[in-house]
Amino acid sequence: MEAKIYNQRWWLSSCDSEVLKGIISADLERAGFTVLNFVEHYFQPQGYTALWLLAESHAAVHTFPEEGKSYVELSSCAASLLANFDRNLQAAATQHQWQVTA
Fold it and tell me: Which residue in 25, 58, 77, 96 is the catalytic one?
């Protein structure tokens, strides 16, 4: 078995930490990832970061409220699961009218 990690990054035009957390958690599950652990931190006076430890690697979100955007990153040893997540995230972005840049 060859060791290989697939990685993708997105910038989203949203900083709503609760919405982001809910969407990323649901999209990871729908994509077929196994979440082993989750940790998050709220910065004062603003900002949010979260990390999902996955059996297949990890996902993270970092908000930049001063710029009105968030950075999402997903690393996975399963290219198909990453592609599933990308489709789910793109659909959520359309539904919430977020701009997405990779």
Answer: 77
- What stretch of H or E contains 53? strand 48-54
pTM: 0.93
User: Is 15 in the active site?
Assistant: no
- Consecutive 10-residue averages of pLDDT for the chain (102 residues): 90 96 97 98 97 97 97 97 96 93 82
Q: Active-site residue 57, yes or no?
A: yes
Respond yes or no: is residue 62 known to be catalytic.
Answer: yes
So what's the pLDDT on residue 1?
65
Residue 59 identity (one-letter amino acid): A
| Bridge partners of residue 39, in order along the sequence | 51
Query: Is-contact 61 50, C-beta < 8 A?
Result: yes
Distance CA 49, CA 61 (A): 6
